[in-house]
Design a protein that fits this description.
- The chain is of the alpha/beta class and about 475 residues long.
- The chain folds into 2 domains: about 270 residues, 3-Layer(aba) Sandwich (Aldehyde Dehydrogenase, Chain A, domain 1), CATH 3.40.605.10; about 190 residues, 3-Layer(aba) Sandwich (Aldehyde Dehydrogenase, Chain A, domain 2).
- Helix content is about 40%, strand content about 20%.
- Helix 5 links the parallel strand 8 and strand 9.
- Helix 2 packs antiparallel against helix 4, helix 3 packs across helix 4 and helix 4 runs parallel beside helix 5.
- Bound molecules: nicotinamide-adenine-dinucleotide.
- The site of nicotinamide-adenine-dinucleotide has 31 residues, from helix 7 and helix 8.
């Protein structure tokens, strides 16, 4: 059985703990391997390695650090086919989706490598009476904790800017999908990254707690659920650690009456079925104009009926399994609640058979879901869509914005100017109009309200790992 160890000071080491956690192939339901669950001692060793590496790493020029980011990108490119296979095996997402993930991770490392070429470590501020220098300082040792839905991508959004800023780090990938991330350690060895700059510990919640509570960790960058995010925030408060939280979403997709129904249905289906709906940005609330409501539902039912569930390695598969059995249980719990609440489901006469193994769930659509329903309010993290209809723009905006989450949104409207105007009035960190969900490293990622604190990607992602300092004195 494949046992994943810890990576500390550029060396694979055994854990001091005898606890092991199994990780699975969600299509075959077979165990793929085990990770040893890092103990507090293991975490301490990893943090001390990062502390020791910090003075040298932070003094390198941004350009020198940027060189290593190019090496991460080169490594991912060179090993892409194996990594895609590992993502499909451990996460269950379709081949095409896994390929997109690796490409996204590569473009993030490349983007920050390019940023490094022109990054100024300090600037002179002109003033008639004082000599002023503005310097950017790394925050120190960073704890990076990620979920299981976009392995290698979510970590790239944190690791690349943290390293560029001059921080050293300890990374804890999700215990559910740990396999693809282990290659980052191999990359560190091959590129000759200085020892202790990048450390990786495996494990679940207890390892996460050991990491977030460690007094020598200066910053926590966390992506995951709201309940864990709150626990992490409480830990950070104790030592006043800096914090980035990327949490849940329940994003709206607004469909206006001037659209082509075909394009609208495509946007709705991909917004809720991509990655089997396991996306923080999934557009799981459909807000559709009354005039086209019935016509849209007709087409939507047909489109959903055509989605075939199957082997994620098979090119013709429309949707893979959910990533783990607990997620399947969670989605099924919401389907039971929908029944109890008497919600009206769209009839989608699916033709495809359910495979004999795998954590599969068919896409479901519930129409006219009351806004008080927990299916409308809560993040389900699966292919479950709730709908409401509107009569005018103000009502559409009210329905969309009247929600605790504010991560992303989509507007589909033929009139491009109106689409952009509506997009600007939506409460969300990212709003797409008349386009698929695309996240570019030049922009930003993060939400308002319960969706988190801070932004990743772009210059904002870099600033999340460095602080500004001004050095002032008489004119020189
Ligand atoms: P989760 O909160 O269960 O776990 C996330 C990570 O935290 C895992 O590595 C886990 O081991 C670790 N962890 C668990 N308990 C911990 C604790 N007490 N202290 C420290 N670490 C702890 O989330 P998940 O089920 O892995 O992922 C799904 C969630 O992630 C969804 O809610 C989704 O919306 C969210 N998510 C958000 C974004 C975003 O960008 N906003 C992106 C992807 C996923």
């Amino acid at each position: 059985m494949n046992l994943l160890k810890q990576f500390i000071n550029n060396t694979w080491v055994e854990s001091s703990s005898a606890q092991h956690l199994e990780y699975y192939n969600p299509y075959t339901e077979q165990v793929l391997g085990v990770v040893s669950e890092c103990s507090t001692d293991d975490v301490n060793r990893a943090v001390q390695a990062a502390v020791k590496a910090l003075p040298h790493w932070r003094c390198l020029s941004s350009q020198a650090r940027g060189h290593y980011l190019s090496c991460f990108a080169d490594f991912l490119e060179a090993h892409k086919s194996r990594l895609v296979r590992e993502v499909v095996q451990n996460n269950g997402k379709r081949l095409l989706e896994a390929e997109m993930d690796i490409d996204d991770a590569i473009s993030c490392y490349r983007y920050y490598a390019e940023v490094s070429a022109t990054l100024e470590d300090e600037q002179s501020i002109h003033h008639p009476s004082y000599s002023i220098t503005r310097c950017y300082e790394p925050l120190g040792v960073v704890a990076i904790i990620t979920p299981w839905n976009f392995p290698l991508v979510t970590s790239a959004w944190k690791i690349a800017p943290a390293l560029l800023a001059g921080c050293t780090l300890v990374f804890k990938p999700s215990e559910v999908v740990p396999l693809p991330e282990q290659s980052l350690a191999q990359a560190a060895i091959e590129m000759g990254l200085p020892e202790g700059v990048f450390n990786l510990v495996n494990g679940g919640a207890s390892t996460g707690v050991a990491l977030t509570s460690h007094p020598d960790v200066n910053k926590i960058s966390f992506t995951g659920s709201n309940s864990t995010g709150s626990a992490v925030m409480r830990m950070a408060a104790k030592d006043v650690k800096d914090l980035t939280l990327e949490l849940g979403g329940k994003s709206p997709i607004l469909i206006f009456p001037d659209v082509s129904l075909e394009a609208a249905v495509e946007a709705v289906v991909s917004g809720i079925c991509f990655n089997a709906g396991q996306m923080c940005s999934a557009t799981s609330r459909l807000v559709v104009h009354k005039d086209i409501e019935e016509a849209l539902y007709d087409r939507l039912s047909n489109a959903i009926a055509q989605i075939s569930l199957g082997d994620p390695f098979n090119q013709s598969t429309g949707m893979g399994p959910l990533t783990h059995v607990k997620q399947l249980e969670q989605v099924n719990r919401y389907l039971s609640l929908a029944k109890q609440e008497g919600l009206e489901g769209l009839t989608c006469n699916q033709v495809a058979q359910r495979p004999s193994t795998g954590y599969f769930v068919r896409p479901h659509v519930f129409r006219n879901v009351p806004r008080s329903s927990c299916l409308w309010q809560e993040e389900i993290f699966g292919p479950i869509l709730c709908t409401q209809s509107f009569r005018n723009d103000e009502e559409a905006l009210f329905i969309a914005n009247d929600h605790p989450f504010a991560l992303a949104a989509t507007v589909i409207c033929e009139d491009k100017e109106k689409a952009r105007d509506i997009a600007k009035r939506l409460q969300a960190g990212t709003v797409w109009f008349n386009t698929e969900q695309v996240v570019l490293p030049q922009t930003s990622w993060g939400g308002f309200k319960h969706s988190g604190i801070g932004r990743e990607l772009g210059p904002f992602g870099l600033d999340a790992y460095r602080g500004v300092k001004h050095v002032m004195g008489p004119l020189i």
